[in-house]
Amino acid sequence: MKQPHVYILASARNGTLYVGVASQLVQRIWQHKNHVATGFSQRYGVDQLVWFEAHSSMEEAILREKQIKSGSRKRKLDLIETMNPDWRDLYEDILSG
Fold it and tell me: What is the pTM of this model?
């Protein structure tokens, strides 16, 4: 099912962060985890899904992605800590959800 999401990946707790947008979240995170998605996430080993947010349209998701990317690292960490204080990899959660 296609539903736009904004997501944050991390290399480890308080590690390198990557902010992305996807129309099929499960498929996109699988690509990151299996290093099919080349570029930043592959180069820095950023493959743990630590935060995500669903949106009703891709336009809305892209605007939110840009807002998050332009914000400070502290704001990104606050988003993660609010939803996922233990920094668990949420990939298994979205597989069963």
Answer: 0.95
